[in-house]
Every structure is written in structure tokens, then in C-alpha cells.
């Protein structure tokens, strides 16, 4: 209910549609915005919905920051999967509370974080990353957003083997997922789901060949397209310019 | 691990790509398929991945049935939201373990079940349905798939008021969601998200007007289109015919 | 104007949105519709916009039939290109009055007829078809719709050579267009355009390789998607089901 | 065949994929490119496919410029319809050699030019424009690309009446096309087609109401989406960013 902001909470400070800021509250820290700076100590104890004033007299509304807000505030993420694709993976691969999921590559942990958030509190994400710098950035990012307890991160080449067995889902976002099809099949429980993301149709074709060969069934390659509309009553229309393509998604099952 | 099938488990019996059956295992029940009938008592004690033989000698592989398998096996569901749209709602409205979500209308409980599955074990879905027959069908369906413990279903008109407060999300799939915009705003926590599904662009325009008037920010109307590909290597192409449109989704936040 | 219908004219007889009939007026011929039969002799001399009565007393409005009406009335066409794709080819390949165009394969002449209609009166379509039955059906179809004078049809394998030179455009709708890339390049005038239609992305990739190797520039592969809306004010929305994919189009230029 | 460039011809000078120039050859004129300048007198007499050297020693291949090249080279065009939409209009409104077409508004003449090119040599485009500056720019543009002989341009408000009758098509690209629906119906021949372009779905809904009221049949609102692919073999995929929406097209017939 009328809960108050505590140190360590993530908050969203809202000024207007184009200026909102997501920040983790730490006492003593000063946070700079284009509408002046905020002493985060002043945010502690505020009720959600109350405002905090910047040093130049602008009021910012204090709201709860959600998962995507938090992930968006981390500078370290590079080349991440879009929420539209992550959403399709989560639901079509049946990833939810308690799921045990293998993922590769970790990258800097964006999709890992989303998966971890959904398998809480009893599930686990086992994530493989071959590059040490990415692995370390991911550890830091996951810790920052509070999701590390649900993740087992490994600085390992998944093509050399998957340590886990009887997992509910395997999620692959890596350049050559066809090289992991057989390992993924063996790691999955019966009924479990493989989900693959690849940017090009050339890769998609190779993945289809590999998963079929490895014994997967119900192979479903798709494209997910989200088109935003301008929310202007009386002039409703889709945005003129935007994202036309991110990649292809393929799900397949061990049956 | 090498867990065995128990009474009450949901299993998926796989014969081939076009013939797979989802069923809840009850001792003594005989289940009929186009490849013969199965005495479900024989399924109990099987390890996942083993086969069961029908009375005409066909083998079916026994696998775990997931949430969408279970929902798909329920005959009562009519006119339900597509998984692509449910996925977008779940992720863009930040609905996960522990979330408290208000939903209307319940319909026969398809989306309710998905939401309930994601808020487990500590969250709750408070769902409103004005029609008594739908409300009762939904109760039965939710019980059948084991998700009733996470749902508080009400045979009530949401337009007359929302009982809950400080909820994380409000999800509306009803003919006139604009009549609930203000109630939804009041029921949400600061930072909480409203998600609305409507089939026509005429409705979408009315929703935009109403949510803006009620004080919502970051209003984002979208369309989610999923295009399936035929998984035939050497002849890769999208399906020729299929679903061109289900509806429009709008998210907005209380900030 | 108030021009009158003459023998040999194509007319469109309109009863209602779902029942309209395109027919070539021949004296003495009786034309059967689901609303009764019409003696076409009675249509001769009608002004456009007047009605003709069937033998069961239903009135049909007499209108001019256009090119697509005529093509749609020919039973002999099989597996034809969609108007959306034909439109893109015509405009992006700069095919208009006076253009000299090479086409393969003719099929039963649907696209040939569209191209011929646009190059009238001084242009020509040189069309190649390897199958004799298709070639003969195309000749008959083109004659029926009055476009044969603008077409030079050949029962020949285009892969063995193109007889024409300095043509403005080459249009390929055949299984292995990559085998004609070099011939097409040689046949085109400088600045001329190649347009290729293929159903699968696997074919598209082979075409791209071939046209690049043959020296083509400004290679542009696209997909054209047309989504129909239900024209119901107050309930405006796209059609639920429909065509998701026909094929890929590629244009390239000799520069 | 081996025709030579003459004064007044439009040529396309090609350096590489990102640098090609369309210019009308005038003796004595010096044309500047990012690869040096060309004395156009030197282009006269060249055969197509030969090169011309710039003052800094770069070679440009001389090719024929087509209609879209020419239109693209005119600086005066503003806010023009996309070729994808123009293509759909031309083919679905059955506009070809000999067609008599009414258009409004002219704007600076881009769509007028395309229509005029297709109705050559015996057809006519009657185009209405309320703004004098646009009307004058259009006259100049049409003259420059050589299509003025096929156009009758008027500095008139089409909402006050259409002078022509029994026309084959009426094409409307103006803010309030619903105000012309009845005039359009009266101006069309029986069987003739109305084609309307509007950017917003709000306008589309008003157009549907108006054309239905005016007696039009076979009302078909659509969206035409063209998605470009990157022509890279081995990495085939759609462009990441691009045009998501231009507008809605509606065709309707007088039957």
C-alpha cells in the first residue's frame, strides 16, 4: 500500500513523456538529470506518487521502476534482444516460476535477466558465455538488478557440452546455434522446448536442418513484428519510421 | 530427472506432427485418439520419453504437457486471446512471480490462466466477469489446469468499481475498456501498467482518449504480428495463408 | 459519352457485393448466373448503368469490365501472380506505353496480359514458355481478352537464349531464374530493369548471387504485403484471415 | 538499338551503388557530382553503356534514366506519395494507355507525372490543385519531365465540382477526400474506379462512410507494405530500420 522508498529500491523519476529516469536509490548519491540534480537521500522515505524537487526547482514524480526500466538504465548492455522477441520466447518456451532454463550466449545479460525474473524464486537460469569480458559484465549487471541469485553464469563454450539435464527450456541467441542442437536435445526433459533467435534467414535455414536432424518435433520458425501507433486521437496512424526487422525465432520440442 | 508419471499429471501423448494429445492422467479412465484408445492407468509409472501402446497397437511417446498444451486441451475455450498477444501483455506489463494483477473480463479464463501461471506462487490475479456462465466455466477451467489457487474470480461488473488497490497491473480484454480507465488508474500502484486488448481501431481510438483523460502516461498502442514460416529447408518461405489480424494492444502507465 | 454496349464488349453485370459477373457480349449467347440467365442479345445497345433483367426477374446493372475483371473471368488461368506483385513489377520496372519487355515463363498468360495492357499500343511483350500446353492456353487467353496484338509468344526455353536485344525490361516468374541472369543482362538496354518473382527465400538467395555475378547493379529484393481492412465504419479493422505471403520480388538494373 | 544520346534526353550517370546522377542533357551545361563535374556537351553522341570522364578523371557510365529516376531528380517535389502506393493505385484503378483520369490535389505533380506516363499517348490526366504555388510548381515539373502534353492542370478547388464526365478513374490524395465522394461518383463512367490515399485511420473511416453513402460498391481499404531486404548472400535479412507506414489506400467502384 502506501509503502515508502527505501535504500536499494529502484525508482522511476518522471518529469514528462520524454524525460524519465530510472535509478537505484543510494543514500548520499547525487543523480543528475536534464532538469537538475536530485540528492537521492531525499527520495528515501517518500511515498510512491509523491514528488522530489531538483536543485533547479523542477518536480519529479517518484514511481516504482519495473524490470524493463531497470534493464534500460544499465549502460553496459550492448546489442540486446528486443522485448517483443523476449516476450515471445518466454511464453512460447513456457518459461515461468520454477522453470530450469539453459541459455547461450549470455552476452551482457539482458535476456538472462528477463529469464531470471520469470523463473523466480525457485527456478534457475544456467547461462553460458564464451567471452570473458561479456561474462563479467553480465555478472555485474545481474547483480545490479538483483537477479544474480536466480542465475548460474558460466564462462564456458556451450558447444563443448551442456552440464545440466532434464531442463525445461534451452534458449539460444548465438551466431551458430546449429552446433548446439544435439546437446540441447539431450539436455531437455521430454516435452521441453528449444527457442532460438537468429538475425538472418540464412542462419534460420541451417537451424531448421540441424534441429530436425537432432530429433526435434513441432518445429516452428516465426517472425514477430510489433508496429507502434502514434497515440493521437483524430490522427491515429502507425509510426512512419521504425524497426522493420530484428530476427527470426524458432521453437522446437523434444517429444 | 527420471521422474515418473503420477495420477493428476498432465501428459502429452505424441504420435506424429499432426497427432498429439494432451490429457490429465486419471486412473481407470480410457482416452480415445485417432490411433486407438489408451488406458490411462497404463501411463501411471511411465518415465517421460517412454511409450504407451494403444488398443490397436500404435505407440505414443509420453511427454510433459506445458501450460499452452493444457489450455489447448480444454474444449470450453472460445474466442480466446492469441499467445502472441498474451506474451506481449505479460512482458510489457511486467507481470511475473509475485505480481498482483486485476483482469476483466475473465471470459472462460484463458488469459486468466496464463496470468495466474506467471504470478505464481506469491502473486494473485483478481478477475472480473459480468456473465455468470462465463464466470462458472472459468472457475472450472482454472481448477482443471491447477491454477485456481492463484486466482480470485468475481462475478462482478468491473465498470462498477475495482475492489483492489496498489496493484501492479490491470489487464482489460472487454468490449468497452474506456469505461474502466479511471477505475484502473486508481487501482494501480505508482509505476503500475495498464494493458488493453481491443479488436478494432475504432475502439483503440476511444481507449486512447480515455486513458489520456484519466492521467495515464507513456501511452503505447501497438499491433503484434507473428508470421509463421514453413520449416522446409531448401524451400523456406512464410505460410501462404494465416492470421492477418487479432487486435490492437495498448499499454499505459501511472507515473 | 453515354456510349452503348456493342457485340464483343466486355461487361460487368452487378447484382450485389457477392454476385457480379464479367462476360464478353456475343449475340445469341445465353449467360447463366445464380440469379437467373441473361440473353446477351438484350445487353447489346444498353447504355452503361442501365439494367438487364434475368429470366427469373432479377435486375443486373451493366457496367464496363476492366482488365482485372476480364482476367478474373477466364477459367484457364492457374497459379497466377497476385495483382499486388504485378503492380510492383509494372511500376518498379518502369513498364508503360511503348516499353519492350521480355517475360518468362508465360504460364497461362495472366502476367503477360497485364504487361501487354500497359505497353499498348506501341510496345511489345516477348514471352517465353517451355511447356506447350501452357503456351497454347496463353495464346487463347490473350486472344480472348484482346491483347494478343501486343504480344509475341514463343514456345521456347528462355534458358537457351533471348532473341531480343536492347529491351527495356526482363520479367522472370519461373522456377530457376538464376539460370537466365546473364542472358537477361545481355538482352537489356543500358538503364533497363530486371524484375524477378520467386516464392521461397532459398530461391531469392540464389537469384541475388546470380544477378550480382552477371553485373547487375542496384539489386533490391523486397516483399510486398497488402492487408485488407473490413470496410465497416465503427468497427474498422483488418481482415482476420488472409494471404500472408505470395513471394519475393527482386529488381536490378543494367547500369 | 545502339542509339546515341541527344540533347534533351534524360540520362543516368552511374559511378557506384551510392553515387548515381539523373540529368537532362543540355549542350553547354556543366553538371556537378561528388566525383567531379561533367560537361554535358560531351555526353551528346555517346552510346548508352559508354562512359564519360569527369574533370577529376572519374568515369561515369551513361545509361537511360527512367521515369522514377527523372522524378527523383526534381528538387521541387515535396511530400510525395511512395512508388509502392502509386503502383497499387495505377494497377488497382486500372489506369493505363488511353485512360481518362481525374486527380486531386496535384501537389507538385509527382503522382500526376506517374499517372500521365501511364495514360500516354491517348489518355489524359485532369488534375485539380487549390494552392497556386503548388499548381505552378507542378506545371514546371511536368514540363521538365516531358509529360505536360498528357495533363490538363487546373488551379481549382475540386470540392466545388468536377468538370469532366465519364472518366475511367478518380484519384484523390487530399486532406478531406470525403467531401469529393459524390462529385467523384458522378464524374465516373459505369465500372469506373475511385482510388483514395489518406495517412490516418481516422480519415479512412470517414472516407468509408462517405463513399458508401455516395453509392460506391466493392469498397476495399488496404495497406500496402513493402519490406526491403539486404541483398547479401549468406546474410540475407530484411533491412533493420525503414518505413513502417505511409498511408491507407481505398478503392471503390461505380457499378
Automatic annotation (TrEMBL), chains A, B, C, D:
Highest taxon of the lineage: Archaea
Species this chain originates from: Thermofilum pendens (strain DSM 2475 / Hrk 5)
State if Transferase is listed as a keyword.
Answer: yes
Q: Which PANTHER family match?
A: TRNA (ADENINE(58)-N(1))-METHYLTRANSFERASE (PTHR12133), TRNA (ADENINE(58)-N(1))-METHYLTRANSFERASE, MITOCHONDRIAL (PTHR12133:SF1)
Give the enzyme's EC designation: 2.1.1.-
The answer to keyword Transferase applying to this record is: yes
Q: Which CDD domains match?
A: AdoMet_MTases
Molecular-function annotations in GO: tRNA (adenine(58)-N1)-methyltransferase activity
Chain sites annotated for binding S-adenosyl-L-methionine = 129, 157, 173
Question: By what name is this protein known?
Answer: tRNA (Adenine-57, 58-N(1)-) methyltransferase
Which GO terms fall under biological process for this protein?
Answer: tRNA methylation
> What are its GO cellular component terms?
tRNA (m1A) methyltransferase complex
- Where does the record place the tRNA (adenine(58)-N(1))-methyltransferase catalytic subunit TRM61 C-terminal domain? 74-230
Which UniProt key words apply to this protein?
A: Methyltransferase, S-adenosyl-L-methionine, Transferase, tRNA processing
EC class, as a word, reads: transferase
Amino acid at each position: 500500500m502506501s509503502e515508502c522508498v527505501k535504500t536499494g529500491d529502484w525508482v522511476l523519476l518522471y518529469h514528462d513523456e520524454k524525460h524519465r529516469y530510472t535509478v537505484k536509490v543510494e543514500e548520499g548519491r547525487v543523480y543528475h538529470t536534464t532538469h537538475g540534480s536530485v540528492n537521492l537521500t531525499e527520495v528515501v522515505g517518500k511515498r510512491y506518487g509523491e514528488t522530489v524537487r531538483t536543485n533547479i526547482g523542477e518536480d519529479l514524480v517518484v514511481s516504482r521502476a519495473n524490470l524493463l526500466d531497470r534493464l534500460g538504465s544499465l549502460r553496459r548492455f550492448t546489442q540486446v534482444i528486443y522485448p517483443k522477441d523476449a516476450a515471445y520466447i518466454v511464453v512460447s518456451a513456457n518459461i515461468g516460476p520454477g522453470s530450469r532454463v539453459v541459455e547461450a550466449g549470455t552476452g551482457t545479460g539482458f535476456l538472462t535477466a528477463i529469464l531470471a525474473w520469470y523463473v523466480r524464486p525457485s527456478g534457475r537460469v544456467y547461462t553460458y558465455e564464451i567471452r570473458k569480458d561479456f561474462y563479467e559484465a553480465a555478472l555485474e549487471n545481474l547483480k545490479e538488478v538483483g537477479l544474480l541469485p536466480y542465475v548460474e553464469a558460466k564462462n564456458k563454450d556451450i558447444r563443448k557440452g551442456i552440464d545440466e539435464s532434464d531442463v525445461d527450456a534451452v534458449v539460444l541467441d548465438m551466431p551458430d546455434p546449429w552446433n548446439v542442437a544435439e546437446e540441447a536435445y539431450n539436455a531437455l526433459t521430454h516435452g521441453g522446448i528449444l527457442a532460438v533467435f537468429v538475425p538472418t534467414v540464412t542462419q534460420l535455414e541451417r537451424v531448421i536442418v540441424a534441429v530436425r536432424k537432432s530429433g526435434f518435433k513441432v518445429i516452428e520458425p516465426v517472425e514477430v513484428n510489433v508496429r507502434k501507433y502514434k497515440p493521437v486521437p483524430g490522427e491515429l496512424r502507425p509510426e512512419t519510421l521504425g524497426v522493420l526487422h530484428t530476427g527470426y525465432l524458432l521453437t522446437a520440442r523434444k517429444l
